[in-house]
Amino acid sequence: MDHPDVLAWRDGHIEALDQTALPHQVRTLRIGTVDELVRAITSLAIRGAPVLGAAGALGVALAVRQGSDEGWNDTRLAAEIARIAAARPTAVNLSREVAAVAARIGDGSAAVEGAALAVLESTGATSLRISARGAEYLLQPCGAGPLRVHTHCNTGALACLGWGTALGVIRALHVAGALSHVIVDETRPLLQGARLTCWELGQLGIEHQLACDGAAPFLISQGRADAVVVGADRIAAEPGAVEEIIRLCGQLPLALAIVSARAAHPGFTLDSIAAELQRTHSRLDALGPAGVACDARTVFSWSYHHLSPQACRLFRLLSLHPASDITAAASASLLGAPPDEANRLMAELTNTSLLTEYRPGRYSFHDLIRAYAAELVGQWAHNHPAARDAITHAAARDPSPSVRKKASWYAPGGTIYERTVPRPAPGPRRRGR
What is d(CA 355, CA 116) in angstroms, rounded to the nearest whole number? Predict the structure, then answer.
């Protein structure tokens, strides 16, 4: 690519490509102080885990040089280096490489600078090896290509030096003549895919298409991609936890996005997140952590508040249904309404994505959405005495023991419920022939 180095050490200064200016302007930052480096990291002018690690390593050399010029004592030097390591709390590479190079301070400034440059060199070399091996590995199950590849965020030279990691694999496929085109997720809210990955692919002359984030599952489900190439080191390290998280989230993109936001912190292992989802009384509580701007309840409520009153009533009552598979006849029974009206209301729920019609006349209800409906029916029963009668009558129309049991939670006392809904009388016994 014809542009300045992503990251370099020149004349005792760090030079870095300003990634906040791309794609409209190619601008290089010349960084000479710890303050300037911390500002560049926190503003995302320098970003990407491997690049942050290399920048942190160079930052230690920068701090040693600045400290020597300004007469810092050991305490001040240690504090400034700690600021660099903490500039991006979620970047494991940053704190790791800072600590590794800082351990050489006792050997003198030349040793520190040499260790920092070694990190810079090894980061680029590692990405080149990942690119070649990844492309070779991908071609084994997918064939010789040309492949249609889907990717997310930015994992190229801008983030990783060399050729990149996931995007480096794509670049290696291109060089080998095994790439058709790339689908790039825009990657909200900072648009690393739209701004940076598309820019890198354009510089390399690789055909690419930009997709909004919400379109990615649809494109994959429609077979528009032969492979999805993303950074997945943590997923590969904890595959069992990943499968459990996906199951507990009901495969809902919203829930998985909320879990991803929590998993971004290096202090949370995927196994610990899966365990939290398992033991939390309401999974909706586990999917509404502090700091997440939009939790599951909030998003579900947007759909719920667009429903008609009758559809709201049906949605709440559906939480009593014992299975995830629901028919229009079952909904008509719960609602006490004609089948045509139940069909109309089920269509309304489907249009707002609260139900999925996976086959004509058969609907599925995700566990998380069912949990939200159950919360609503509980609030409804608590706040409106007439609602308890509606719940009781709905259960009376459905002899299923599980429906009766659920309804008894919301009806005012199990004994009242049992008086209201008598057990069905046993039918006549058949005589054998």
Answer: 55
pLDDT at residue number 282? 54
Nearest alpha carbon to residue 15 among 66, 51, 64, 65: 51
Distance CA 299, CA 155 (A): 30
Active site residue 295: no
- Residue range 354-363, pLDDT digits in tens: 888 888 888 8
Residue ranges and CATH numbers for the domains of the chain are 7-122 (1.20.120.420), 126-228 (3.40.50.10470), 233-294 (no CATH), 301-420 (1.10.10)
User: What is the residue type of 380?
Assistant: W
The one catalytic residue among 5, 233, 271, 340? 233
The three-point CA angle 285-287-291 to 5° equals 100
pLDDT tens per residue, range 168-218:
999 999 999 999 999 999 998 889 999 999 999 999 999 999 999 878 888
Strand order in the sheet with 7-10: 7-10, 13-17, 28-31
